[in-house]
């Protein structure tokens, strides 16, 4: 298959602000290669179409888009994020780099502002929805809005007109609507297709109302006995008793009472003081009047008064009772424009609802029948209409949903009544098919209608399992520019807008079904493929699938089993290029008690099998206890809970260990440990992780990860390093906000709307670290030692502490995560406890105190924004970009190694040699010859442990992955795990000589210390690896490693030539500033030196700021500084000698001075100063000249010399003659040498 390059689209991003373009990004050459290959946007030719500055700005700008939604300052935070990213203090995970600002997966499923959503209180504009509003979902129940969203949209708008619905749905193309075949994007719908309409479903028991519990106003006095209740105004009680008469206290919902409620909604009013309820009917409707009176007496035990009005043909039935008036107002509202139907009526029985409609239609309904003849037709035609029209569209919509629930295919439309009353209120009408409604019409009006036949069936309505689907009548596509809206709805992820069911808009559940139900095997595969297309990975739990060979009754076949479908998934993912550049990473998980566990354990024994999956066994505490006690263990079918087999636990454990020792897979996940820390146990049990195993996730959740670069938080003073704890705290705070913004700004796959709902529900983030090994090297602490374990714990505790404080502040600013009620962070039932270290602290690294009580109090007061805050990810590529030596929390893999980076079908090899080790050798005073010999040996094996000449202090500290014992690896992971609320991606490295028993011991230790998972790797057990030493690489090629030491070109030099890693600038340097006269004016030259006394940087300032002369002098200084900071076999002093050699003797057109004091040009003057500085620090300098002339030994440049250009001080370069004699004079720029003028 041939893949063609296609340009990567980006959403609109403003230009990088000018002041940010000047920011120097401290990237190594390897980092630039990785950015170009992996993260920069590409054009049709596959070449980058954005710069590195533009890439970082794209990420910062589009992540900060969340600030617009959440009430922050987008520009301010975009610049803050850009600053943090370009200083390499924090980097998000790869999908944020590749996905930010791209349309793939863009959440564009929204409605225009006036689209109305069905809520429990009637219709509400989607633009007016609030978090907490209860909206009707496609499941026919009311669920709360968990988030509202709005965004600017410029593009096509679909106007969809559905038959029987008089309003038009205005929606963006990607929004899914419910159709008979499932959720379908609007842009895929056609005229004639059918969409679902929504109404309340299900039935609740008939309620009984206690009128004594009504919300009476404070000024009203109420009394109650066991059976009766009354309410009154104390001041008027003695003179007016009708309003305060006793009525029945307990009222049960019956069909008869529902009919009375229907009369109230149609004809009932409550006086302004709330004293009585009045029903107003025509004087001719005596039967209805008697019905109302009887219903009042039988329901409340009160007799109303009946009076004919003197102003017209009306009869008033007055029910004097404050109690009853308060009840009707509380449940149905008062005033024609404000009435609504309560939830208990919307879910009432059919008998209750039909009787309610009887009372309602008797009051406000209309049945009309007209018989007429048509010319040329023998038999007459009959026109019938059965409808109700009210000046209350929200109430009409509820009535429409009620009749739909009862099975009537009713129509709804707005009506224009301004022809009757010019200032008429907004009105709507429900129209029901008369013959389909013949029984109801008979009960209401006593009219007999004929039986309907097929001619009266509405063919544009289809019913499936009791749900009606209405036909699309018209689709109009128009351009639109403005604000569109959406909302998140708990559990059902949908809502009803303009009567139509719409979906709200990365661990995936796999149910034991081929795809008929949501979450079935192939439904999940389809979702996973869409996620991978956007650059996301997936985690799958296959534990719910029935075992291989189990019967499948629906097809009379037998089950394929989890491993069979795992292979199907792997094959599908093999054809998907993730994000257009690499294949997807996936995690497959199976519980240890599944009957197919043996097949799963061995499914990757052959390298290359299931190459798109990592696999892990979910191990339970019960299993580990059985292994410990050498007991039997049951393998249970998830289909029916039956026991398929009893096995010896230790034998099964040995199988897991054997294959892990063989090639590192399967990994192990301690599922009970993970669920003990599950922040939202009320939502789900954890079953699977993301592809690298560090992030436990619930169904459809994703991992929003990022890592703080610890190496960028080191401060150097007098050659010694310390950790800058306050700077680290500030970065953690900014990074936490960044990741919370990512949750909102993330463009989830529109076709899988469950992704956003799950992400927003818990708002999980995973802030981690990288460069831990760099910090340990710098502080001279051995990785894996007790001191190393404690330092790692103190750092991670500091990160977790400040991440939680920031999350609490965000909760105060933006609100806590929606699912907080019932979680371990529920402020009303706080179960979370502050973490504690694995071992008590005994060392002081200058860290400020941690006050966990602040966190506890903050959660109780404000909640917390993120259900999970910390995760330690592997950060392989990010570490390369950041220039750190230790990936994630791992030790340094080797002091010299080759990293293989995937580049499409090719592999990009990046060579590394540890700059920290090289600097340490120099700092320890190791001479150059010995350093060279050490580097050659280290470049081969990657370790300095058996290399002669390495100082013992360095040998102790500069350990690499293979030098650390498995127990030390595990204990480091456990020490960190105590302050990581999710999990950790870490590899436990074993030497080639490791046995199966060694691996088993590591598994048990990890379980006992509370780790949530463990991955092992025995050196040499895989052919394809990301990192390897020169020795391993040579042995794969069949060459002897020992021969490498005999090569004429030292191995370390080859590695260094590949690694153009510029030295980072320390926080402070010391230096000397010199003054010298030049043909272009006075020059001030500063030479700064590092802590080792070597020249590090040069600054040259000549002329007035902003002039061409100043620019040229600054450029020369920058280039000299770059030469001094780049790696080289030559010392910085030797390099500076070469610079002097190149600059000395360069002649110009206006030399100045005489004899030994003669200065030929600006470069010649700089050479004199640099030479003086070398001589000042005792470096011998040979006399050279490489310009247009030569000269005698140079006197001190600071000696007084005649200023031949005193009259043209601060002159600039003339564009005509090139002399430094262009000056501002009388408002014009003139040259004193050639007469050139700009005027």
Automatic annotation (TrEMBL):
Belongs to the ribonucleoside diphosphate reductase class-2 family. Its cofactor is adenosylcob(III)alamin. GO terms for biological process: deoxyribonucleotide biosynthetic process; DNA biosynthetic process; intein-mediated protein splicing. It catalyses: a 2'-deoxyribonucleoside 5'-diphosphate + [thioredoxin]-disulfide + H2O = a ribonucleoside 5'-diphosphate + [thioredoxin]-dithiol. Catalyzes the reduction of ribonucleotides to deoxyribonucleotides. May function to provide a pool of deoxyribonucleotide precursors for DNA repair during oxygen limitation and/or for immediate growth after restoration of oxygen. Keywords: Autocatalytic cleavage, Cobalamin, Cobalt, Deoxyribonucleotide synthesis, Disulfide bond, DNA synthesis, Nucleotide-binding, Oxidoreductase, Protein splicing. SUPFAM superfamilies: Hedgehog/intein (Hint) domain, Homing endonucleases, PFL-like glycyl radical enzymes, R1 subunit of ribonucleotide reductase, N-terminal domain. The keyword Oxidoreductase applies. It holds the Pfam family Hint_2. Signal peptide: none annotated. GO terms for molecular function: ATP binding; cobalamin binding; endonuclease activity; ribonucleoside-diphosphate reductase activity, thioredoxin disulfide as acceptor. It comes from Ardenticatena maritima. Residues 260-408 form the DOD-type homing endonuclease domain. This is Vitamin B12-dependent ribonucleotide reductase. It comes from the Bacteria. Its EC number is 1.17.4.1. Residues 1178-1202 are annotated as: Disordered.
């Amino acid at each position: 298959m041939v893949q063609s390059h296609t340009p990567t689209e980006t959403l609109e991003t403003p230009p990088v602000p000018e002041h940010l373009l000047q920011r120097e990004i401290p990237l190594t050459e390897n980092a630039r290669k990785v950015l170009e290959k992996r993260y920069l946007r590409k054009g049709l030719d596959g070449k980058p179409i954005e710069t590195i500055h533009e890439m970082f700005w794209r990420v910062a700008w589009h992540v900060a888009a969340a600030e617009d939604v959440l009430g922050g300052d987008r520009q301010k935070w975009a610049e803050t994020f850009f600053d943090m990213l370009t200083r390499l203090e924090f980097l998000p995970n790869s999908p944020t780099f590749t996905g930010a600002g791209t349309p793939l997966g863009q959440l564009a499923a929204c409605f225009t502002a006036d689209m109305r959503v069905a809520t429990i209180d009637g219709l509400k504009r989607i633009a007016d929805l609030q978090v907490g509003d209860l909206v009707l979902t496609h499941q026919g129940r009311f669920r709360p809005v968990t988030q509202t969203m709005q965004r600017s949209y410029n593009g096509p708008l679909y106007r969809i007109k559905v038959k029987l619905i008089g309003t038009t749905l205005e929606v963006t193309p990607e929004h899914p609507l419910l159709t008979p075949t499932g959720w379908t994007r609007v842009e895929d719908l056609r005229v004639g297709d059918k969409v679902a309409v929504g109404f309340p479903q299900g039935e609740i028991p008939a309620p009984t109302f206690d009128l004594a519990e009504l919300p009476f106003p404070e000024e009203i006095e109420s009394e109650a006995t066991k059976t009766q209740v009354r309410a009154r105004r104390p001041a008027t009680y003695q003179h007016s008793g009708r309003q305060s008469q006793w009525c029945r206290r307990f009222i049960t919902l019956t069909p008869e009472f529902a009919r009375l409620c229907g009369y109230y909604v149609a004809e009932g009013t409550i006086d302004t003081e709330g004293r009585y309820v009045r029903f107003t009917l025509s004087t001719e409707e005596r039967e209805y009047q008697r019905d109302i009176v009887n219903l009042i007496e039988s329901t409340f035990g009160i007799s109303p008064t009946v009076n004919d009005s003197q102003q017209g043909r009306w009869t008033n039935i007055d029910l004097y009772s404050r109690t009853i008036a308060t009840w009707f107002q509380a449940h149905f509202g008062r005033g024609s424009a404000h009435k609504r139907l309560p939830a208990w009526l919307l879910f009432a029985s059919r008998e209750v609802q039909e009787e309610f409609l009887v009372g309602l239609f008797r009051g406000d309904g209309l049945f009309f029948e007209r018989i007429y003849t048509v010319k040329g037709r023998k038999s007459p035609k009959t026109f019938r209409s059965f409808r109700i029209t009210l000046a209350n569209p929200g109430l009409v919509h509820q009535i429409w949903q009620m009749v739909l629930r009862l099975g009537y295919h009713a129509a709804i439309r707005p009506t224009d009544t301004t022809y009757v009353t010019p200032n008429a209120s907004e009105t709507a009408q429900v129209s029901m098919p008369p013959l389909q409604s013949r029984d109801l019409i008979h009960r209401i009006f006593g009219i007999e209608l004929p039986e309907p036949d097929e001619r009266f069936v509405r063919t544009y309505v289809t019913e499936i399992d009791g749900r009606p689907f209405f036909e699309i009548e018209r689709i109009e596509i128009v351009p639109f520019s403005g604000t569109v809206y959406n909302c998140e709805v708990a559990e059902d992820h949908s809502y009803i807008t303009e009567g139509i069911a719409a979906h709200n808009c990365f661990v995936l559940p796999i149910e034991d079904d081929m795809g008929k139900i949501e979450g079935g095997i192939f439904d999940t595969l389809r979702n996973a493929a869409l996620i991978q297309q956007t650059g996301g990975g997936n985690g799958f739990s296959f534990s719910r699938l029935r075992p291989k060979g189990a019967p499948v009754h629906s097809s009379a076949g037998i089950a394929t089993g989890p491993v069979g479908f795992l292979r199907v998934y792997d094959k599908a993912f093999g054809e998907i290029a993730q994000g257009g550049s690499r294949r997807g990473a996936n995690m497959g998980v199976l519980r240890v008690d599944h009957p197919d566990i043996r097949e799963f354990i061995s499914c990757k024994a052959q390298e290359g099998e299931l190459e798109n999956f990592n696999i892990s066994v979910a191990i339970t505490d019960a299993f580990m206890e059985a292994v410990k006690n050498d007991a039997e263990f049951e393998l249970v079918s998830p289909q029916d809970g039956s026991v398929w087999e009893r096995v010896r636990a230790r034998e099964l454990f040995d199988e897991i260990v054997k294959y892990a020792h063989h090639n590192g897979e399967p990994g192990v996940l301690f599922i009970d440990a993970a669920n003990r820390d599950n922040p939202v146990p009320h939502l789900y049990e954890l079953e699977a992780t993301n592809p690298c195993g560090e992030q436990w996730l619930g169904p459809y959740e994703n991992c929003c990860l990022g890592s703080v670069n610890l190496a960028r938080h080191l401060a150097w003073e007098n050659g010694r390093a310390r950790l800058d704890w306050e700077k680290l705290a500030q970065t953690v705070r900014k990074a936490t906000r960044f990741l919370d913004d990512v949750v909102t700004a993330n463009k989830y796959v529109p076709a899988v709307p469950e992704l956003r709902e799950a992400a927003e529900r818990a708002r999980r983030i995973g802030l981690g670290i990288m460069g831990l090994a760099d910090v340990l090297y710098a502080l001279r602490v051995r990785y894996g030692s007790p001191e190393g374990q404690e330092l790692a714990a103190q750092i991670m505790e500091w990160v977790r502490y400040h991440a939680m404080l920031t999350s609490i502040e965000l909760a105060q600013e933006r609100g806590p995560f929606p699912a907080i009620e019932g979680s371990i962070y529920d402020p009303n039932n706080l179960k979370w406890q502050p973490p504690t270290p694995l071992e008590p602290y005994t060392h002081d690294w200058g860290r400020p105190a941690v006050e966990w009580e602040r966190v506890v109090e903050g959660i109780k007061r404000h909640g917390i924004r993120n259900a999970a805050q910390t995760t330690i990810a592997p950060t392989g590529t990010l570490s390369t970009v950041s220039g750190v030596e230790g990936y994630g929390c791992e030790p340094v893999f080797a002091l010299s190694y080759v990293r293989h980076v995937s580049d499409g079908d090719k592999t990009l090899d990046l060579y590394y040699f540890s700059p920290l080790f090289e600097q340490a050798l120099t700092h320890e005073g190791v001479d150059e010859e010995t350093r060279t010999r050490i580097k050659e040996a280290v470049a081969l094996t990657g370790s300095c442990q058996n290399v002669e000449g390495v100082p013992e202090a360095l040998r102790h500290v500069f350990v690499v992955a293979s030098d650390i014992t498995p127990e030390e690896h595990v204990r480091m992971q456990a020490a960190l795990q105590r302050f990581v609320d999710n999990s950790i991606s870490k590899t436990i490295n074993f030497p080639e000589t490791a046995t199966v028993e060694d691996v088993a011991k590591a598994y048990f230790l990890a379980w006992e210390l509370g780790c949530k998972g463990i991955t092992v790797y025995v050196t040499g057990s895989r052919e394809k690896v990301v990192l390897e030493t020169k020795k391993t690489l040579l042995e794969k090629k069949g060459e002897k490693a020992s021969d490498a030491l005999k090569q004429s070109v030292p191995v370390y030099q080859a590695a260094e030539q590949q690694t153009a890693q510029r030295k980072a600038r320390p926080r402070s340097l010391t230096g000397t500033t010199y003054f010298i006269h030049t043909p272009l004016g006075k020059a001030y030259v500063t030479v700064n030196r590092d802590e080792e006394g070597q020249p590090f940087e040069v600054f040259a300032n000549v002329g007035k700021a902003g002039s061409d002369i100043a620019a040229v002098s600054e450029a020369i200084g920058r280039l000299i500084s770059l030469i001094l900071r780049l790696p080289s076999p030559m010392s910085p002093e030797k390099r500076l000698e070469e610079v002097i050699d190149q600059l000395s003797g360069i002649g110009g057109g206006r030399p100045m001075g005489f004899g030994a004091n003669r200065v030929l040009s600006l470069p010649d003057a700089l050479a004199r100063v640099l030479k003086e500085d070398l001589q000042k620090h005792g470096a011998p300098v040979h006399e050279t000249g490489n310009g247009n002339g030569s000269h005698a030994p140079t006197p001190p440049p600071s000696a007084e010399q005649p200023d031949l250009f005193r009259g043209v001080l601060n002159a600039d370069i003339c564009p005509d003659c090139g002399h430094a004699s262009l000056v501002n004079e009388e408002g014009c720029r003139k040259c004193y040498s050639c007469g050139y003028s700009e005027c």
